[in-house]
């Protein structure tokens, strides 16, 4: 795992004929390993990745989906725009970011889920694939919103959501809709994440 390289903040934008990336000033840049650049090439041109030197966890926007329901959100780091559309506000303490990067790496090794598939899920396109379901279940256990049998820790999830969403009725609405036990832990994790993704506009500011 590459450590972050603290350079002066990037303050501009990078453009290609197909895509545009905009970043707010004030974040530290980090190099993206070559293998991750290859994984991400279907999503972003490698020339942009090399220019921006965006941190690995920045691309792993899956974290934002999980963080919004089950992880401490306390420090806004940056806002990311893709094709001009705001899709992510990441407010994760640096120590938690390191944990999430570690968890994602460990779960990818176990599940074999390819990064483009994970990225597609982050953007709301969920493949009904066993590897992706195993990956989500693995992350759910490590983050703490599920146990090894696929049971949700509802109070933990609610507590973490309440740090971002102040409307208890909205939180309860989403939890009642999305925290449903299904036939397997993997299917339960997959459908809960998909449901939260589909309903994020209901609760997120």
Q: What topology emerges from the helices and strands here?
A:
Elements: E1 13-15, E2 20-23, H1 34-40, H2 46-52, H3 56-59, H4 62-70, E3 78-82, E4 85-90, H5 94-111, H6 115-122, H7 130-143, H8 154-162, H9 168-178, H10 185-198, H11 200-203
Antiparallel strand pairs: 1-2, 2-3, 3-4
Helix pairs in contact: 4-8, 5-7, 7-10, 8-9, 9-10
Quickly list its features:
205 residues, alpha+beta, disordered N terminus, secreted, PBP/GOBP, glycoprotein, odorant binding
Structure description:
GO terms for molecular function: odorant binding. Pfam families: PBP_GOBP. This is B1 protein-like. It comes from Sitophilus oryzae. This protein has 205 residues and is of the alpha+beta class. It has one domain: Pheromone/general odorant binding protein domain (Recoverin, domain 1, Orthogonal Bundle), CATH 1.10.238.20. The chain contains eleven helices and four strands. The protein has helices at 34-40, 46-52, 56-59, 62-70, 94-111, 115-122, 130-143, 154-162, 168-178, 185-198, 200-203, and strands spanning 13-15, 20-23, 78-82, 85-90. A four-stranded antiparallel β-sheet has the order 1-2-3-4, covered by helices on one side. Helix 4 (62-70) packs across helix 8 (154-162), helix 7 packs across helix 10 and helix 9 packs across helix 10 (185-198). It is globular and about 40 Å long. Residues 1-90 have low confidence and may be disordered.
């Amino acid at each position: 795992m590459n450590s972050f390289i603290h350079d002066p903040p990037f303050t501009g934008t990078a453009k290609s004929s197909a895509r545009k990336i905009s970043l707010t000033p004030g974040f530290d840049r980090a190099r993206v390993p070559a293998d991750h650049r290859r994984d991400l090439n279907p999503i972003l041109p490698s020339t942009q990745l090399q220019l921006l030197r965006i941190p690995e966890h920045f691309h792993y926007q899956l974290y934002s989906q999980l963080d919004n329901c089950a992880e401490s959100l306390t420090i806004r780091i940056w806002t990311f725009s893709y094709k001009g559309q705001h899709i992510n506000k990441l407010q994760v303490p640096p120590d938690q970011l390191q944990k999430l990067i570690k968890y994602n790496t460990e779960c990818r090794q176990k599940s074999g889920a390819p990064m483009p598939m994970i990225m597609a899920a982050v953007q709301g396109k969920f493949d009904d694939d066993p590897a992706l379901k195993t990956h989500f279940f693995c992350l759910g256990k490590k983050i703490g919103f599920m146990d090894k049998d696929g049971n949700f820790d509802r109070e933990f999830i609610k507590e973490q959501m309440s740090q971002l969403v102040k409307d208890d009725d909205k939180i309860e609405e989403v939890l009642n809709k999305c925290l449903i036990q299904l036939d397997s832990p993997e299917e339960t994790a997959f459908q809960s994440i998909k449901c939260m993704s589909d309903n994020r506009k209901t609760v997120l500011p």
